[in-house]
From TrEMBL:
InterPro entries: Bac_surfAg_D15. Keywords: Membrane. Pfam families: Omp85. This is Surface antigen-like protein. Residues 202-365 form the Bacterial surface antigen (D15) domain. It comes from the Bacteria. The lineage of its organism: Bacteria, Pseudomonadati, Bacteroidota, Flavobacteriia, Flavobacteriales. One of its GO terms (cellular component) is outer membrane. Gene3D superfamilies: membrane protein fhac: a member of the omp85/tpsb transporter family (2.40.160.50). It comes from Schleiferia thermophila. It is found in: Membrane.
Amino acid sequence: MLLLCHICMKKICLATLLLLWISASKAQQWLEWFGFRSLNDTVSTEKTGFALIPLLYYTPDTRFAFGAAGVYYFSLKAKRPDQRDARLSYVQFLADYTQNNQLDIWGLWNIFTRNEDYLIKGELRYRNFPDRFYGIGNATGRDQVEYYSYDLKSFKYLMLKRLTKEMFLGFDFMISNEYNFRIKEGGILDLGNITGNRGGVTSGIGGVVTFDSRDNIVNPYSGHFFEISTYYFHPNIGSSFYFFNFNINYQTYWETKPKNILAFQIVGRFNTNGVPMLDMATAGGDEILRGYARNRFRDINFAGTQLEYRFPLFWRLGLVGFAGVGDVFNSTADLSIQRLKYSFGTGLRFAINPAERLNLRFDVGIGREGAQYYLMVTEAF
């Protein structure tokens, strides 16, 4: 939750889906989103509006999730001839409920000021989240699982200044309160030697630098994305915990032939001692190391990489193959070939909006403990 992209923990996929559905009041648009239109159609050029749609997705941590989302979108016009209109900004609200009885209610905003001099992001969130805990480290067993739940209230604010066309620099503030922990009596969490096992306040400030030359943020064919973020958590700024966090994310894309894309990613999430359990690095999820549930492995640090090849089949269908490797760890001494987490698999793509390269994806990822399944909107990275 400490990466810039985790301001929207379901990434940009829900926001993108909403923003592309910008003429939702027209019945024709509903039909179009279910595939009844030309592949050469472009998205609407409307600059202001409101949309409301249902949500559906599936991950190993949630199983099927259902909900609704609404978005108000707008674009600020340039005031001078030497300036450009800003890209689309939005304010959105989402609420979903999962088969695992998890409730998530949150509001997000992503606003470009005039001439895109600044980018302002934020999040206000409430979460009631029953989950599974397997212990700390990369060698835990599935038979160690115990169930727990908690409530969370959080607020995040990020402001970035545009330095060049492709680079932004800024600061971030986040605060969350994790409370109402319900844990197994006599279990691992009940022993009291895991930081944050009863919740607390996590408050921190940080800096973010982003370089983004991708030709499309939803499904790039070329370009690079590079982001570094750091966060400092201390009781002097209201935190119950004292630790430092550092994140790195690099992505690059090559179009080997028309619409055949080779995508590569490196991710690192590093913390100092004192990080609470809910803010620890995890291995798995719908973004990297597909094949492991996000809650399966956690520790102070994570490093991983993955490679994916994407190509069209016919009509609006496409196929991908992917492979990745990585692990969580406390120190590098914890890493070993015998425990290193690998992941490989394949996935089917259906183009919801070909003009914007927006895909519905179904992935099957295989890891050391078997297969996991994912139904999401947009690519993993």
